[in-house]
Amino acid sequence: MIFLASNLPAQNPTPEIKKAPAFGITFSGYVNTDIFFDTRQTVMAREGEWLFYPDNVKLDPNGKDINSRGSYDILSIQTRLTGNITGPDIFNAKTSGLIECEFYGNINVNINTFRLRHAYVKLNWPKTELLLGQTWHPMYVPACFPETVSLNAGAPFLVFTRNPQVRLTRQLGNFSVLVSALSQVDATSTGPDGPSPKYLRNSIIPEMALQVQYRVANEEKKTEFQIGASADFLMLTPRLGTDVVTRAAYDTVVNNLVTHHDAVVVNYKTTAKSTAFTGNIFAKLKLPAVTMKIGGVYGENCYAFNLIGGYAVKSTIDPVRGIVDYAAIRTASVWADFKTNGTRWSTGIFGGFSRNLGAGTDITGPYYSRGSNIDYLYRVAPRLILMVKKLKIASELDYTVAAYGTTGGQGMVSNAKEVGNLRILLGVFYYF
After folding, report:
1. Residue 369's domain is classified under what CATH number?
2. With helix as H, strand as E and coil as C, how does the chain read?
3. What's the whole-model pTM score?
Protein backbone atom coordinates (compact mmCIF):
# COMPACT_ATOMS: atom_id res chain seq x y z
CA MET A 1 0.00 0.00 0.00
CA ILE A 2 1.14 3.57 -0.68
CA PHE A 3 0.26 6.56 1.48
CA LEU A 4 1.08 10.26 1.14
CA ALA A 5 2.49 12.42 3.93
CA SER A 6 3.30 16.03 4.80
CA ASN A 7 6.30 18.34 5.25
CA LEU A 8 10.02 17.47 5.10
CA PRO A 9 12.31 20.47 5.77
CA ALA A 10 15.41 20.83 3.59
CA GLN A 11 17.91 19.47 6.11
CA ASN A 12 15.59 18.70 9.05
CA PRO A 13 16.06 15.12 10.27
CA THR A 14 12.76 15.11 12.20
CA PRO A 15 10.10 16.02 9.61
CA GLU A 16 6.50 16.60 10.56
CA ILE A 17 4.99 13.43 9.12
CA LYS A 18 1.50 12.04 9.54
CA LYS A 19 1.18 8.95 11.70
CA ALA A 20 2.41 6.04 9.62
CA PRO A 21 0.13 3.06 8.98
CA ALA A 22 0.82 -0.25 10.67
CA PHE A 23 2.15 -1.69 7.41
CA GLY A 24 3.18 0.32 4.37
CA ILE A 25 5.14 3.33 3.17
CA THR A 26 4.56 7.04 3.70
CA PHE A 27 6.02 9.42 1.10
CA SER A 28 7.16 12.99 1.69
CA GLY A 29 9.72 15.36 0.24
CA TYR A 30 10.04 18.67 -1.56
CA VAL A 31 10.63 20.34 -4.89
CA ASN A 32 13.57 22.74 -4.73
CA THR A 33 15.17 25.33 -6.98
CA ASP A 34 18.36 27.20 -6.01
CA ILE A 35 19.48 30.41 -7.71
CA PHE A 36 22.98 31.60 -6.81
CA PHE A 37 25.73 33.99 -7.87
CA ASP A 38 29.43 33.83 -6.91
CA THR A 39 31.86 36.73 -7.17
CA ARG A 40 34.75 34.44 -8.27
CA GLN A 41 35.52 30.86 -9.30
CA THR A 42 35.15 28.31 -6.50
CA VAL A 43 36.18 24.83 -5.43
CA MET A 44 32.83 23.08 -5.63
CA ALA A 45 30.80 20.09 -6.79
CA ARG A 46 27.68 19.60 -8.93
CA GLU A 47 28.08 22.79 -10.94
CA GLY A 48 28.41 24.82 -7.76
CA GLU A 49 25.41 23.50 -5.81
CA TRP A 50 27.93 22.24 -3.24
CA LEU A 51 30.35 25.04 -2.27
CA PHE A 52 33.66 24.37 -0.50
CA TYR A 53 35.64 27.62 -0.73
CA PRO A 54 36.99 30.17 -3.27
CA ASP A 55 39.58 28.97 -5.77
CA ASN A 56 43.18 30.18 -5.58
CA VAL A 57 44.58 33.10 -7.56
CA LYS A 58 45.64 32.01 -11.07
CA LEU A 59 47.68 34.65 -12.90
CA ASP A 60 48.03 34.93 -16.65
CA PRO A 61 51.24 36.29 -18.31
CA ASN A 62 49.92 39.84 -17.81
CA GLY A 63 49.38 39.35 -14.08
CA LYS A 64 45.59 39.10 -14.37
CA ASP A 65 43.76 36.70 -12.04
CA ILE A 66 41.91 34.25 -14.28
CA ASN A 67 39.78 33.03 -11.36
CA SER A 68 38.51 36.50 -10.44
CA ARG A 69 35.46 35.93 -12.60
CA GLY A 70 31.96 35.61 -11.22
CA SER A 71 29.44 32.94 -12.17
CA TYR A 72 25.81 32.03 -11.62
CA ASP A 73 23.55 29.00 -11.89
CA ILE A 74 19.95 27.85 -11.45
CA LEU A 75 19.58 24.22 -10.31
CA SER A 76 16.76 21.97 -9.13
CA ILE A 77 18.88 18.87 -8.42
CA GLN A 78 18.22 18.99 -4.67
CA THR A 79 14.58 17.99 -5.23
CA ARG A 80 13.98 15.07 -2.86
CA LEU A 81 11.69 12.10 -2.20
CA THR A 82 11.55 10.22 1.12
CA GLY A 83 9.71 7.01 1.94
CA ASN A 84 9.16 6.04 5.58
CA ILE A 85 8.38 2.33 5.92
CA THR A 86 6.59 0.56 8.77
CA GLY A 87 6.10 -3.16 9.28
CA PRO A 88 5.45 -5.94 11.77
CA ASP A 89 7.45 -6.62 14.93
CA ILE A 90 10.42 -8.97 14.51
CA PHE A 91 12.47 -10.52 17.34
CA ASN A 92 10.29 -8.55 19.81
CA ALA A 93 11.48 -5.32 18.15
CA LYS A 94 9.58 -2.57 16.35
CA THR A 95 10.75 -2.52 12.73
CA SER A 96 10.96 0.42 10.36
CA GLY A 97 12.86 1.52 7.30
CA LEU A 98 13.61 4.59 5.25
CA ILE A 99 14.55 5.30 1.64
CA GLU A 100 15.53 8.81 0.56
CA CYS A 101 16.70 9.90 -2.88
CA GLU A 102 17.29 13.10 -4.82
CA PHE A 103 18.42 14.17 -8.30
CA TYR A 104 21.89 15.26 -7.19
CA GLY A 105 23.90 12.44 -8.82
CA ASN A 106 26.78 10.74 -7.04
CA ILE A 107 29.54 12.35 -9.18
CA ASN A 108 29.69 15.53 -11.25
CA VAL A 109 29.13 13.84 -14.62
CA ASN A 110 25.95 12.21 -13.25
CA ILE A 111 24.30 15.46 -12.21
CA ASN A 112 20.48 15.38 -12.54
CA THR A 113 20.37 11.61 -12.01
CA PHE A 114 18.61 9.91 -9.11
CA ARG A 115 21.01 9.11 -6.26
CA LEU A 116 20.59 7.40 -2.91
CA ARG A 117 20.89 9.47 0.27
CA HIS A 118 19.51 7.16 2.95
CA ALA A 119 18.47 3.52 2.88
CA TYR A 120 18.27 1.59 6.15
CA VAL A 121 16.33 -0.82 8.32
CA LYS A 122 15.91 -0.28 12.08
CA LEU A 123 15.00 -2.68 14.85
CA ASN A 124 13.95 -0.93 18.06
CA TRP A 125 13.70 -2.54 21.49
CA PRO A 126 12.74 -0.47 24.60
CA LYS A 127 16.29 0.87 25.14
CA THR A 128 18.28 -0.45 22.18
CA GLU A 129 18.30 0.32 18.46
CA LEU A 130 20.02 -1.62 15.66
CA LEU A 131 20.41 0.14 12.31
CA LEU A 132 21.69 -1.49 9.13
CA GLY A 133 22.10 0.55 5.97
CA GLN A 134 23.20 3.94 4.71
CA THR A 135 22.64 7.07 6.78
CA TRP A 136 24.50 9.91 8.48
CA HIS A 137 27.99 9.30 9.81
CA PRO A 138 27.92 9.23 13.65
CA MET A 139 30.06 12.39 13.71
CA TYR A 140 27.27 14.26 11.92
CA VAL A 141 24.46 14.81 14.42
CA PRO A 142 21.06 15.43 12.73
CA ALA A 143 19.65 17.15 15.82
CA CYS A 144 22.65 19.50 16.12
CA PHE A 145 23.84 20.85 12.78
CA PRO A 146 23.90 24.29 11.10
CA GLU A 147 20.59 25.05 9.39
CA THR A 148 22.09 26.92 6.46
CA VAL A 149 20.20 27.44 3.21
CA SER A 150 23.22 26.09 1.34
CA LEU A 151 23.20 22.33 0.82
CA ASN A 152 26.65 21.96 2.42
CA ALA A 153 25.14 22.66 5.89
CA GLY A 154 28.38 24.25 7.12
CA ALA A 155 30.96 22.03 5.40
CA PRO A 156 33.97 22.15 5.22
CA PHE A 157 33.86 23.22 8.89
CA LEU A 158 32.14 20.11 10.23
CA VAL A 159 31.79 16.44 9.32
CA PHE A 160 29.18 16.02 6.57
CA THR A 161 28.89 12.54 5.07
CA ARG A 162 26.58 9.54 4.83
CA ASN A 163 27.98 6.00 5.03
CA PRO A 164 26.76 2.41 4.77
CA GLN A 165 27.06 1.06 8.30
CA VAL A 166 25.98 -1.27 11.08
CA ARG A 167 25.04 0.86 14.10
CA LEU A 168 24.01 -0.04 17.64
CA THR A 169 22.56 2.61 19.98
CA ARG A 170 21.83 2.14 23.68
CA GLN A 171 19.66 4.55 25.65
CA LEU A 172 20.70 5.12 29.28
CA GLY A 173 18.19 7.61 30.67
CA ASN A 174 19.04 10.97 29.14
CA PHE A 175 22.32 9.56 27.84
CA SER A 176 22.83 7.53 24.69
CA VAL A 177 25.85 5.56 23.49
CA LEU A 178 26.34 4.68 19.83
CA VAL A 179 28.90 2.40 18.16
CA SER A 180 29.17 1.89 14.43
CA ALA A 181 31.21 0.05 11.80
CA LEU A 182 31.21 1.87 8.47
CA SER A 183 32.26 1.72 4.83
CA GLN A 184 32.41 4.50 2.21
CA VAL A 185 30.42 5.10 -0.96
CA ASP A 186 29.87 8.77 -1.99
CA ALA A 187 32.21 10.75 0.28
CA THR A 188 35.39 8.67 0.03
CA SER A 189 39.03 8.94 1.01
CA THR A 190 41.56 9.76 -1.68
CA GLY A 191 44.90 8.24 -2.65
CA PRO A 192 47.27 7.48 -5.53
CA ASP A 193 44.37 6.68 -7.89
CA GLY A 194 42.15 9.56 -6.81
CA PRO A 195 39.05 9.44 -4.57
CA SER A 196 37.83 5.86 -4.10
CA PRO A 197 36.35 3.56 -1.42
CA LYS A 198 38.96 0.91 -2.25
CA TYR A 199 41.60 2.32 0.14
CA LEU A 200 39.29 1.62 3.10
CA ARG A 201 37.92 -1.60 1.59
CA ASN A 202 41.42 -3.05 1.07
CA SER A 203 42.28 -2.44 4.72
CA ILE A 204 39.68 -5.09 5.68
CA ILE A 205 39.07 -3.32 9.02
CA PRO A 206 35.99 -1.05 8.69
CA GLU A 207 35.96 2.53 9.84
CA MET A 208 34.89 2.56 13.51
CA ALA A 209 32.98 5.31 15.33
CA LEU A 210 31.78 5.94 18.88
CA GLN A 211 29.35 8.64 20.03
CA VAL A 212 28.14 9.63 23.50
CA GLN A 213 25.53 12.33 24.07
CA TYR A 214 23.26 13.76 26.72
CA ARG A 215 19.88 15.26 25.80
CA VAL A 216 16.99 16.64 27.83
CA ALA A 217 13.91 18.32 26.34
CA ASN A 218 10.69 19.91 27.60
CA GLU A 219 8.11 20.03 24.83
CA GLU A 220 5.66 22.04 26.92
CA LYS A 221 8.22 24.80 27.53
CA LYS A 222 9.74 24.36 24.06
CA THR A 223 13.25 23.96 25.45
CA GLU A 224 16.03 21.49 24.74
CA PHE A 225 19.64 20.97 25.77
CA GLN A 226 22.00 18.56 24.05
CA ILE A 227 25.73 17.94 24.39
CA GLY A 228 27.98 15.17 23.17
CA ALA A 229 31.20 13.96 21.61
CA SER A 230 32.28 11.45 18.97
CA ALA A 231 35.48 9.63 18.04
CA ASP A 232 36.46 7.90 14.81
CA PHE A 233 39.22 5.52 13.66
CA LEU A 234 40.11 5.20 9.97
CA MET A 235 42.70 2.90 8.38
CA LEU A 236 43.55 3.06 4.67
CA THR A 237 45.70 0.91 2.38
CA PRO A 238 46.76 3.38 -0.33
CA ARG A 239 48.50 0.74 -2.49
CA LEU A 240 48.51 -3.03 -2.88
CA GLY A 241 51.68 -2.92 -4.95
CA THR A 242 54.53 -0.58 -5.89
CA ASP A 243 55.85 0.34 -9.34
CA VAL A 244 59.67 0.33 -9.41
CA VAL A 245 61.43 1.27 -12.65
CA THR A 246 64.47 -1.00 -12.97
CA ARG A 247 65.40 0.25 -16.43
CA ALA A 248 64.38 3.55 -17.97
CA ALA A 249 62.90 3.77 -21.45
CA TYR A 250 65.42 4.46 -24.23
CA ASP A 251 65.80 4.62 -28.02
CA THR A 252 68.44 3.02 -30.22
CA VAL A 253 69.38 3.97 -33.78
CA VAL A 254 70.70 1.33 -36.18
CA ASN A 255 71.13 2.18 -39.86
CA ASN A 256 69.03 5.31 -39.32
CA LEU A 257 66.18 3.18 -37.94
CA VAL A 258 64.95 4.29 -34.50
CA THR A 259 63.82 1.54 -32.12
CA HIS A 260 62.05 2.42 -28.88
CA HIS A 261 62.53 0.28 -25.77
CA ASP A 262 59.93 0.61 -23.03
CA ALA A 263 60.86 1.01 -19.41
CA VAL A 264 61.03 -2.12 -17.31
CA VAL A 265 58.76 -1.85 -14.28
CA VAL A 266 58.71 -4.33 -11.42
CA ASN A 267 55.76 -4.56 -8.99
CA TYR A 268 56.26 -5.40 -5.32
CA LYS A 269 53.54 -6.19 -2.81
CA THR A 270 53.07 -3.63 -0.02
CA THR A 271 50.88 -3.57 3.06
CA ALA A 272 51.74 -0.04 4.24
CA LYS A 273 48.80 1.64 6.00
CA SER A 274 47.69 5.17 6.79
CA THR A 275 45.83 5.46 10.11
CA ALA A 276 43.87 8.39 11.48
CA PHE A 277 41.93 9.37 14.61
CA THR A 278 39.31 12.14 14.65
CA GLY A 279 37.12 13.57 17.41
CA ASN A 280 34.38 16.16 17.62
CA ILE A 281 32.19 17.85 20.20
CA PHE A 282 28.77 19.46 19.80
CA ALA A 283 26.16 21.27 21.87
CA LYS A 284 22.69 22.70 21.34
CA LEU A 285 20.49 24.99 23.42
CA LYS A 286 16.92 25.60 22.30
CA LEU A 287 14.79 28.26 23.96
CA PRO A 288 11.26 29.32 22.97
CA ALA A 289 12.53 32.19 20.82
CA VAL A 290 16.01 31.13 19.65
CA THR A 291 18.21 28.09 19.03
CA MET A 292 22.00 28.09 19.43
CA LYS A 293 24.39 25.34 18.28
CA ILE A 294 28.17 25.00 18.43
CA GLY A 295 30.70 22.36 17.50
CA GLY A 296 34.34 21.59 16.90
CA VAL A 297 36.47 18.99 15.12
CA TYR A 298 40.09 17.92 15.63
CA GLY A 299 41.22 15.16 13.36
CA GLU A 300 43.61 13.43 11.01
CA ASN A 301 42.94 12.68 7.34
CA CYS A 302 39.55 14.43 7.26
CA TYR A 303 39.22 14.30 3.46
CA ALA A 304 36.30 11.84 3.46
CA PHE A 305 34.51 14.02 6.04
CA ASN A 306 34.43 16.89 3.47
CA LEU A 307 36.90 18.95 5.52
CA ILE A 308 40.33 20.08 4.42
CA GLY A 309 43.14 17.64 5.12
CA GLY A 310 44.23 14.14 4.13
CA TYR A 311 47.58 12.37 4.28
CA ALA A 312 50.93 12.30 2.48
CA VAL A 313 54.01 10.14 1.92
CA LYS A 314 56.32 10.63 4.91
CA SER A 315 59.37 8.72 3.70
CA THR A 316 60.60 5.81 1.63
CA ILE A 317 61.37 2.91 3.97
CA ASP A 318 62.53 0.46 1.26
CA PRO A 319 64.02 2.20 -1.81
CA VAL A 320 64.65 -1.08 -3.65
CA ARG A 321 60.99 -2.13 -3.50
CA GLY A 322 59.59 1.42 -3.45
CA ILE A 323 57.73 0.93 -0.17
CA VAL A 324 56.76 4.10 1.71
CA ASP A 325 55.06 5.07 4.94
CA TYR A 326 52.49 7.81 5.50
CA ALA A 327 51.68 10.72 7.77
CA ALA A 328 48.20 12.14 8.35
CA ILE A 329 47.52 15.85 7.85
CA ARG A 330 45.77 17.27 10.92
CA THR A 331 42.79 19.64 10.81
CA ALA A 332 41.02 21.70 13.48
CA SER A 333 37.75 23.58 13.05
CA VAL A 334 35.04 25.30 15.08
CA TRP A 335 31.57 26.46 14.08
CA ALA A 336 28.47 28.12 15.53
CA ASP A 337 24.91 28.59 14.32
CA PHE A 338 22.21 30.87 15.68
CA LYS A 339 18.58 31.18 14.56
CA THR A 340 15.23 32.58 15.64
CA ASN A 341 12.33 30.13 15.99
CA GLY A 342 9.62 32.07 14.20
CA THR A 343 7.01 29.98 12.41
CA ARG A 344 6.63 32.44 9.50
CA TRP A 345 9.80 34.57 9.49
CA SER A 346 13.11 33.21 10.73
CA THR A 347 16.61 34.68 10.71
CA GLY A 348 19.92 33.01 11.40
CA ILE A 349 23.67 33.19 10.96
CA PHE A 350 26.41 30.60 10.61
CA GLY A 351 30.11 31.09 11.29
CA GLY A 352 33.02 28.68 10.91
CA PHE A 353 36.82 28.61 11.09
CA SER A 354 39.17 25.79 10.03
CA ARG A 355 42.97 25.48 10.31
CA ASN A 356 45.54 23.27 8.62
CA LEU A 357 47.81 21.95 11.39
CA GLY A 358 50.18 20.02 9.14
CA ALA A 359 51.57 16.57 9.87
CA GLY A 360 53.89 17.30 12.80
CA THR A 361 56.65 15.42 10.98
CA ASP A 362 58.68 15.78 7.80
CA ILE A 363 56.90 14.88 4.56
CA THR A 364 58.50 13.98 1.25
CA GLY A 365 55.22 13.84 -0.70
CA PRO A 366 53.08 13.39 -2.68
CA TYR A 367 49.99 14.70 -0.88
CA TYR A 368 46.61 12.97 -0.98
CA SER A 369 44.52 15.72 0.55
CA ARG A 370 42.12 18.60 0.09
CA GLY A 371 43.47 22.13 0.48
CA SER A 372 47.09 21.19 1.22
CA ASN A 373 48.11 24.73 0.22
CA ILE A 374 45.48 26.37 2.49
CA ASP A 375 46.54 27.72 5.90
CA TYR A 376 43.03 28.52 7.16
CA LEU A 377 39.41 29.02 6.11
CA TYR A 378 36.56 31.04 7.55
CA ARG A 379 32.93 31.69 6.65
CA VAL A 380 30.15 34.02 7.74
CA ALA A 381 26.68 33.28 6.34
CA PRO A 382 23.57 35.19 7.49
CA ARG A 383 20.15 34.03 6.26
CA LEU A 384 16.49 35.09 6.15
CA ILE A 385 13.63 32.60 5.68
CA LEU A 386 9.93 33.04 4.94
CA MET A 387 7.62 30.04 5.46
CA VAL A 388 4.08 30.23 4.08
CA LYS A 389 2.21 26.95 4.56
CA LYS A 390 4.11 24.48 2.36
CA LEU A 391 6.23 27.07 0.56
CA LYS A 392 9.61 28.21 1.89
CA ILE A 393 11.59 31.07 0.39
CA ALA A 394 15.11 31.24 1.83
CA SER A 395 17.91 33.72 1.15
CA GLU A 396 21.53 33.57 2.29
CA LEU A 397 24.73 35.56 1.93
CA ASP A 398 27.79 33.32 2.20
CA TYR A 399 31.20 35.00 2.52
CA THR A 400 33.96 32.37 2.55
CA VAL A 401 37.70 33.09 2.69
CA ALA A 402 40.59 30.71 1.96
CA ALA A 403 44.16 31.71 2.86
CA TYR A 404 46.44 30.17 0.20
CA GLY A 405 50.20 29.95 0.65
CA THR A 406 53.31 27.79 0.30
CA THR A 407 53.24 24.26 1.72
CA GLY A 408 56.29 23.47 3.84
CA GLY A 409 58.12 20.24 4.61
CA GLN A 410 55.78 19.27 7.46
CA GLY A 411 52.57 20.18 5.67
CA MET A 412 52.24 23.62 7.29
CA VAL A 413 51.41 26.57 5.04
CA SER A 414 53.31 29.86 5.17
CA ASN A 415 53.07 33.26 3.44
CA ALA A 416 49.31 32.82 3.11
CA LYS A 417 47.16 35.39 1.34
CA GLU A 418 43.39 35.54 1.70
CA VAL A 419 41.07 34.97 -1.25
CA GLY A 420 37.35 35.63 -0.69
CA ASN A 421 34.09 34.79 -2.42
CA LEU A 422 30.61 36.13 -1.78
CA ARG A 423 27.72 33.85 -2.71
CA ILE A 424 24.21 35.26 -2.98
CA LEU A 425 21.75 32.38 -2.72
CA LEU A 426 17.97 32.18 -3.08
CA GLY A 427 16.30 28.83 -2.45
CA VAL A 428 12.64 27.98 -3.04
CA PHE A 429 11.19 24.81 -1.46
CA TYR A 430 7.69 23.36 -1.90
CA TYR A 431 6.97 20.55 0.56
CA PHE A 432 4.59 17.65 0.19
Report:
1. 2.40.160.10
2. CEEECCCCCCCCCCCCCCCCCCCEEEEEEEEEEEEEEECCCEEEEHHHCEEEEECCCCECCCCCECCCCCEEEEECCCCEEEEEEECCCECCEEEEEEEEEECCCCCHHHCCCCEEEEEEEEEECCCEEEEEEEEECCCCCCCCCCCCCCCCCCCCCCCCCEEEEEEEEEEECCEEEEEEEECCCCCCCCCCCCCCCHHHHCCCCCEEEEEEEEEEEECCCCEEEEEEEEEEEEEECCCCEEEEEEECCEEEEECCEEEEECCEEEEEECCCCEEEEEEEEEEEEECCCEEEEEEEEEEECCHHHCCCEEEEEEEEEECCCCEEEEEEEEEEEEEEEEEECCCCEEEEEEEEEEEEEECCCCCCCCEEEECCCEEEEEEEEEEEEEEECCEEEEEEEEEEEEEEEEECCCCCEEEEEEEEEEEEEEEEEEEC
3. 0.90
